[in-house]
Design brief:
With 504 residues, the protein is α+β, with helices and mostly antiparallel strands. Among the domains are: 179 residues, no CATH class; 129 residues. Helices cover 45% and strands 12% of the residues. Strands 2, 6, 7, 8, 9 and 10 form a six-stranded antiparallel β-sheet that branches. Helix 4 runs antiparallel to helix 15. It starts with 11 loop residues before the first helix and ends in an 8-residue tail after the last helix. Bound molecules: adenosine monophosphate (AMP) and magnesium ion (MG).
């Protein structure tokens, strides 16, 4: 099959939003070599990747042969980066090739990352390196396997061209699939220019694409704000319940779709710590683990500001006041929406089926215990399932002082026993442990394992560690013999010195 007809493109963004992008071709790669293809995702998209000859696939995913029907464009967007506003960011090293309707009828963006300079590149080279692009594969696939909404990697090609960072690294292009690349920053781009007409077209497009039920309703802009806020509340709750630290929650990295996007300086917390920060540039801890829900709300307030002129046009001061009050009410409601989702996830991880007034305190005290005992976040949740099955020893072994868990465990057992009233005790315990092991993964992308796999791929061209880790990440809830090394935390000294990097 020729690369030229791989996808059935239907490019609504390019068609419906002239003025929102610059048409721009990918830079050719001198010696493309395919490093990764996501066959399951390709199948979802109706692409028979296995039928592509390796050379054709490499040329396709390097951008050397732009497929028929693609209309490569660099999208315009702005964004608050670490709280400071940049009125023009845009796709500086990315291109949207177009959209395809997948087998389930969902419109998905197909985009390149690392495909060369564009009019939005500012000082950057438009390129990406093998390590960070394979990192995006690993973390994105892990998130997907954990059931968390995310953009996903379809392919990675080594370009055969060096890219210069703090060292010279092998270059790469990633093909990314997303529900869309609409961001809070896309709205900010037009709001910053006072272009209400463009904002209206953008809001209409966004609603048609992500919230079609809202189309044509009088209240659509604020209803869109609420829909986005609820998706983000759910997303953030899921991040917090697996220990995910995004690392760079700038408004240009927050999607309207509710998918996780932009796996740059992300990391997973090891020993539980709300203040955990790994990003080398996050000096103030703005994007620390425990701060993420607050930042999400802050970002949503920035989105709200862009939508106000659409929700209240005209000079009726009272109407403007009403709109502002409603938007403020939505932003103020976000913490409660987040909390409800977060608590629901925690209940599942605690093995509880019924809601109880004491649940929040029980969960808070558990997290405080993990923090005080420097317990590994992921393994502690997982070993709590063993405790649910009747074996508390593995959980206690994670604590600095094993007896410190006594009081909390007694409370939790009492709560479980109350819930199990009337049931055969062994059966209830078995069911609980099963449910808990579906809610708390054994395998997450441990920072040291990710780095190890990327170093082998990037420095030695050895993809075997990457592939072994990827296989484990795709079955995060299964305790497969032989995968213990992926489940174990890094030595504390390694984690203490671990730094991640942006713009790589
Ligand atoms: P990020 O931190 O990856 O979300 O990127 C923030 C902004 O910087 C976006 O506008 C990117 O397109 C741009 N950018 C990041 N890396 C590069 C690069 N190597 N060349 C050009 N633009 C870049
Ligand atoms: Mg970004």
């Amino acid at each position: 099959m020729p690369a030229a007809s791989a996808f059935a493109f239907d490019n609504s963004y390019a068609r419906e939003l002239p003025g929102f992008f610059v048409a721009w071709p990918p830079a050719p790669a001198p010696a493309p070599k395919l490093l990764f293809v996501n066959h399951a995702l390709a199948d979802e998209l109706g692409l028979d990747a296995a039928a592509l000859a390796a050379d054709d696939a490499a040329a396709l995913f390097a951008g050397n042969r732009v497929p028929e029907g693609a209309q490569p464009i660099a999208q315009a967007y702005a964004g608050h980066q670490f709280g400071g506003f940049s009125p023009q960011l845009g796709d500086g090293r990315a291109l949207l090739l177009g959209e395809v309707i997948d087998r389930r009828g969902r419109r998905r963006d197909i985009a390149f990352k690392g495909s060369g300079r564009t009019p939005f590149s500012r000082g950057g080279d438009g390129k990406a390196a093998v390590g960070p692009m394979l990192r995006e594969v690993l973390v994105g696939e892990a998130m997907h396997a954990l059931g968390i909404p995310t953009t996903r990697a379809l392919a990675v090609v080594a370009t055969g061209e060096p890219v210069v960072r703090d060292r010279v690294l092998p270059g790469a292009v990633l093909t990314r699939v997303a529900a869309s690349h609409l961001r809070v920053g896309t709205f900010q781009f037009f709001a910053a220019r006072g272009d209400v007409e463009a904002l209206r077209r953008l809001a209409d497009y966004t609603i048609a694409r992500h919230d079609p039920a809202l189309a044509g309703t009088p209240d659509a802009p604020l209803a869109l704000l609420e829909a986005v806020a609820r998706r983000q509340a759910s997303l953030l709750a899921q991040w917090m319940n697996v220990g995910f630290i995004h690392g760079v929650m700038n408004t240009d990295n927050m999607t309207i779709s509710g998918e996780t996007i932009d796996y740059g300086p992300c990391a997973f917390v090891e020993a539980h710590d709300p203040q955990a920060v790994f990003s080398s540039i996050d000096h103030g801890g703005r994007y620390a683990f425990g701060n993420q829900p607050h930042i999400a709300r802050w970002n949503l307030a920035r989105l709200a500001e862009t939508l106000l002129p659409l929700a209240a046009d005209g000079d009726d001061e009272a109407a403007v006041q009403r709109v502002v009050a409603r938007a403020t009410g939505l932003i103020d409601a976000f913490p409660a929406w987040f909390d409800a989702e977060w608590r629901r996830g925690q209940r599942a991880k605690l093995g509880l089926l019924r809601e109880d007034a004491g649940d929040a305190a029980l969960a808070d005290d558990w997290l405080a215990l993990l923090h005080a005992q420097r317990a590994d976040f992921t393994l502690a949740w997982r070993r709590l399932a063993d405790a649910g099955a009747g074996d508390e020893a593995p959980l206690r072994a994670l604590m600095a002082e094993p007896a410190a868990a006594d009081g909390w465990l007694a409370r939790w057992r009492a709560r479980c026993t109350a819930e199990d009233a009337g049931r055969q005790a062994d059966a209830a315990r078995r069911d609980r442990a099963l449910r808990m092991r579906r809610a708390s993964p054994w395998i997450i992308p441990r920072n040291h394992r990710v780095e190890e796999a990327l170093a082998a791929a990037s420095e030695h061209g050895d993809l075997a560690p990457f592939e072994a880790l990827l296989a484990a990440l795709r079955e995060p809830f299964d305790e497969v013999p032989g995968r213990a090394r992926f489940a174990e935390p890094a030595p504390a000294e390694v984690t203490a010195g671990y730094r991640t990097f942006c713009g790589t």
